[in-house]
Write a structure and sequence with these properties.
With 402 residues, this protein is an alpha/beta fold. 41% of the residues lie in helices and 18% in strands. It has a six-stranded antiparallel sheet. A six-stranded parallel sheet has the order 10-9-8-7-11-12, with helices on both faces.
């Protein structure tokens, strides 16, 4: 692994930017095809992301292009590196996995670009890959050590028993998980997720991430899972996993979490099942002695799919400074305004500007891609600075700016 990149390598990588812009998704598609020929590697990836309009293929192509464009200043990629490292730790990626990726990537570049991909270009990209891999491996090693040494911490997979399974709405089910070994659990940062290794009879092994929907307590975690119509694992959890069953779980990871010690107001803004990390944050704030001023704002279709509404009302009634506003796009006939929801229609930036301390607050966002795309752009236009806008998005960042 190179400690620094040579000037020649950086020059060659810069020269490949036009080719990557034109053929990046073709290269990453071929790379994944090659990787998935190895079962050991294939099991590390969420295969649904491969079929979702090539989501993962596009995301990786974008990441490679950004890396090439910033090859002279890789420090600008610090946020992306942290996000990837956290994801890798959750998936239990190890250094011995990286050579598989290097081999598949270089072979894909050669296959797609043909004679244009000279030995000089392939050698340069090999050096560039291992330079970045060295940064990731070093950061991942740090995270593994931190998690393993923390009270209740562990590395790899730990068996958790489903202590409680609770229906939250027509489409969302909560699972309270406690260690099968009877020990404590590492305190997560509100907003982080757990990674699960799930074996389904007659199918491959699968790995999925689900946000923790409870405040840290050192004893249990809770996840709240939306049933996706074509979701293999979400349907398995809803239909086949029962109280008393055991699941393999990696320690909590993720770089999207509630910042500690902030003196600013907090806005927790979510859409649909995006409420799960926000509930964790709200519970954590509500349990503190000196709670920050919080505005929990959530939008969903109607009461049939709205999860944890009563729970939120109880949390926000505990002390002054905790506020909630619930928006239903199309209230069902059984939904009562003032009881189940507060506003009909959609959350808007204008409403936030008029009803919350938007220009002073830290804003946390979680929801589906259209929701994030609208609010990331709209809040920035409304004057919310980038250091006060916190969100997590698994996909090309360009999608949010479109």
């Amino acid at each position: 692994m190179s400690a620094i990149l040579s000037e020649q390598t950086k020059s060659i990588v810069r020269a490949t930017v036009p080719a990557l812009a034109a053929h990046g998704t073709d290269i990453t598609a071929v790379m994944y095809d090659r990787l998935f020929q190895k079962d050991e590697v294939k099991s590390l990836f969420n295969q649904s992301n491969q079929g979702e309009n090539g989501r993962q293929t596009k995301a990786l192509a974008h990441a490679i292009l950004v890396y090439a464009q910033n090859i002279d200043n890789p420090g600008v990629l610090a946020g992306a590196v942290e996000r990837i490292a956290q994801k890798h730790v959750g998936l239990h990626i190890q250094p011995h996995h990286y050579p598989h990726v290097a081999t598949a990537l270089l072979a894909a570049i050669k296959e797609v670009l043909g004679d244009v991909a000279t030995d000089e270009i392939l050698n340069a990209w090999g050096e560039a890959f291992w330079f970045l891999a060295g940064i990731l491996i070093g950061r991942e090693e740090q995270v593994y050590k931190e998690l393993n040494s923390a009270e209740g911490g562990w590395n790899g997979w730990r068996r958790f028993r489903v202590a409680e399974k609770r229906k939250e709405s027509d489409i969302i089910m909560s699972f309270v998980l406690e260690p099968d070994d009877g020990g404590s659990v590492v305190l997560h940062r509100p907003g982080q997720y757990l990674t699960f290794k799930v074996a389904i009879p007659g199918s491959d092994e699968h790995r999925r991430n689900y946000s923790i929907s409870s405040a840290p307590n050192g004893k249990t975690y809770r996840i709240s899972v939306k049933r996706e119509p074509l979701g293999l694992i979400s349907n398995h959890l809803h239909d086949a996993v029962c109280e008393g069953d055991v699941l393999d779980v990696a320690p909590p990871t993720g770089d999207f979490f509630l910042k500690e010690g902030t003196q600013r107001p907090v806005i927790l803004l979510s859409g649909g099942v995006g409420l799960t990390p926000m509930i964790s944050m709200l519970e954590a704030i509500a349990s503190t002695k000196d709670a920050a001023t919080v505005h929990y704002v959530h939008g969903t279709l109607d009461g049939r799919v709205h999860a944890m509404g009563e729970h939120v009302r109880k949390l926000t009634s505990r002390k002054s400074g905790l506020n909630s506003a619930i928006f239903y796009q199309a209230p069902h006939e059984t939904d009562e305004k003032g009881i189940h929801y507060d506003h009909e229609g959609y959350v808007t930036v204008d409403w936030l500007a008029e009803n919350t301390p938007l220009t002073e607050a830290d804003v946390y966002l979680c929801g589906p891609k259209p929701f994030l795309a609208m609010f990331v752009k709209g809040l920035a236009t409304a004057g919310v600075s980038s250091e006060r806008l916190h969100y997590e998005f698994f996909g090309p960042a360009d999608d949010l700016a479109a």
